[in-house]
TrEMBL record:
Cofactor: L-ascorbate
The enzyme's E.C. designation: 1.14.11.2
Originating organism: Biomphalaria glabrata (Bloodfluke planorb)
Protein's UniProt keywords contain Endoplasmic reticulum: yes
The name this protein goes by in its record: procollagen-proline 4-dioxygenase
Domain Fe2OG dioxygenase intervals: 425-533
Keyword flag Signal: no
InterPro entries (alphabetical): Oxoglu/Fe-dep_dioxygenase_dom, P4H_N, P4HA-like, Pro_4_hyd_alph, Pro_4_hyd_alph_FE2OG_OXY, TPR-like_helical_dom_sf, TPR_P4H, TPR_rpt
């Protein structure tokens, strides 16, 4: 048996590579001795003994080097463990407040996606620790994914648009006056790059500009200025400012004269400016770049919705002087001893807010029941009737039946007493949680005439009314707004909103079209009860008048 080892080995070399080669060679030699029946022994040759001594020395060096690397790695793992322990301990002191901050939520997702891949996996991956690594990977299946990171970035852009957040202030830790973590140049760059991947040149431009500003202030650079200039130049070109794109490309080439893409882009931008000189803008002609949105998001309805979300007044409330507050019993036994507080917030359509509908204990119980079941909320396709997810509704929801728990049944009975309606044909209690940027754009709760099969499977008719319980306070954002009424209701824990979706004739009330504003800071929990037509024949009799 003959083994060939095609490598010249200098036994006096001390390089790591040479030591490794010698170790491999000696292992092969020993393997030959084991495989080949021979009478030769090491003591018969001093050369062999010498070789063994060199091998022993090199093995000792390799082991020491391995131990040092392992000690360094263990020291790093210890630092990671302490960092995770300190970070989670701080966050868990007030979970809702911490996760309610969109920057905290974004950075938490980044922590277990990009940072995990870059900083943690290289430390943990080790042949001797394969079993431990597999266990960690199993736990990691419950942590955020790269898709979550992309979704978090998209949510931040949505918040930025809806609440007109200044990029620089957000990066500096200011969310409309609420203190938030400061973003590094690298994190601003990441937001710009994620927007870039989605061809969102407007937001990519904003965040790449901010990345440049923050990079200049950093003593230890967290991002390459050349990379930032590369992305930023392209976003300017995509936004139509080729002159600025060319200037940034030239700056990039001063940093890296051999940057292949920049060299090609420079030629391309110069050609564009020669062919279309009107694309060259002076500083005075640059009022700012406009957000490129679809036709609906530039509509009066959507712009009104966003303005209401910001707390702006879009129109005066009609007959505001006639709005009242009162105690209500409806002569119902559940309310006689403790009447419910009712505030009329709009007269036509009639919309009211009820105070202290749910106790903290009831809210806690319902959250506990719903949390394990939360799934991405769906909407009904107006054509097929099928339930599907949609970008205009971002939340997670679960459904609870009254027979599942006394608290759920007690809440159902209370809502029936307050409204005077029969809840036997109502839908199950829907629990919804709106997290980072969670929202539901303007929509109707009732099925319109063209949606003939919307509730056909239920056999209970259309949604006659909505009872919306707020189960949390929201620090900023998260209002329920009615664009055609100029009405905005901000969540207050324990309170509830109620309105009829249909006239007594069964016709839909258009002005009940409403929306759930994006949650800026905080976590929004609601419990919806959609009450249907069947069973209300004697409690809310029909009318011959179409709009009564």
């Amino acid at each position: 048996m003959i083994l060939y080892y095609h490598c010249y080995v200098d036994l006096e070399s001390n390089s790591y590579c040479d030591k490794l080669r010698r170790t491999v060679m000696y292992s092969l030699i020993f393997l030959v001795f084991l495989l080949v029946q021979t009478k030769a022994e090491l003591f018969t040759s001093s050369a062999h003994l010498q070789t063994a001594l060199y091998a022993e020395r090199d093995i000792a060096d390799l082991l020491k080097s391995y131990i040092q690397r392992e000690e360094d790695r263990l020291s790093r793992i210890k630092q990671l463990a302490e960092d995770y322990e300190e970070h989670s301990k701080l966050a868990l002191q007030n979970l809702d407040k911490y996760l309610g901050n969109p920057i905290n939520a974004f950075l938490l997702i980044k922590r277990f996606t990009l940072d995990w891949d870059r900083d943690v996996i290289p430390v943990l991956v080790n042949n001797s620790w394969d079993s431990m690594y597999k266990e960690i990977e199993q736990v990691r299946s419950d942590l955020p994914s790269h898709e979550d990171l992309k979704g978090a970035a998209s949510a931040l852009m949505r918040l930025q648009d809806t609440y007109q957040l200044d990029t620089s202030k957000v990066a500096q830790g200011d969310l409309r006056g609420i203190v938030s973590p400061v973003l590094s140049a690298d994190e601003c760059f990441l937001l710009g790059r994620l927007s870039y991947i989605e061809n969102d040149w407007y937001h990519s431009n904003l965040w790449m500009q901010e990345a440049l500003v923050r990079e200049e202030k950093e003593e230890i650079k967290s991002v390459s200025r050349a990379d930032t200039l590369d992305y930023l130049a392209y976003t300017y070109a995509a936004l139509g400012d080729v002159a600025q794109a060319l200037e940034l490309t030239k700056e990039l080439l001063t940093l890296d004269p051999n940057h292949e893409r920049a060299l090609n882009n420079k030629k391309y931008f110069e050609a564009m400016l020669r062919d279309e000189p009107r694309k060259t803008r002076s500083a005075e002609e640059k009022p700012g770049y406009q957000l490129n949105r679809d036709e609906y998001r530039n509509s009066e309805e959507f712009l009104t919705y966003e303005a209401l979300c910001r707390g702006e007044t879009t129109m005066p409330l009609k007959n505001a002087h006639l709005l009242t507050c009162r105690y209500v019993t409806n002569n119902h036994p559940l309310l006689l001893i403790q009447p419910i507080k009712e505030e009329t917030v709009h007269l036509d359509p009639w919309i009211v807010v009820y105070y202290n509908v749910m106790s903290d204990e009831e809210i806690s119980t319902i959250k506990h029941l719903a949390t394990p079941r939360l799934n991405r909320a769906t909407v009904q396709n107006s054509k097929t009737g099928a339930l599907e997810t949609a970008n205009y509704r971002i939340s997670k929801s679960a459904w609870l039946r009254g027979e599942e728990h006394p608290v759920v049944e007690r809440l159902n009975q209370r809502m029936e007493a307050i409204t005077g309606l029969d809840l036997n044909t109502a839908e199950e209690l829907q629990i919804a949680n709106y997290g980072l940027g969670g929202h539901y754009e303007p929509h109707f709760d009732y099925a319109r005439k063209e949606e003939k099969d919307a509730f056909k499977s239920l056999g209970t008719g259309n949604r006659i009314a909505t009872f919306l319980n707020y189960m949390s306070d929201v620090e900023a954002g998260g209002a329920t707004v009615f664009p055609y009424l100029g009405l905005k209701l901000f969540p207050r824990k324990g309170n509830a909103a109620f309105w009829y979706n249909l006239y007594k004739s069964g016709e839909g009330i258009f002005n009940t079209r409403h929306a759930a504003c994006p949650v800026l800071v905080g976590s929004k929990w609601v419990a919806n009860k959609w009450i249907h037509e069947r069973g209300q024949e004697f409690r809310r009799p029909c009318s011959l008048s179409e709009y009564e």
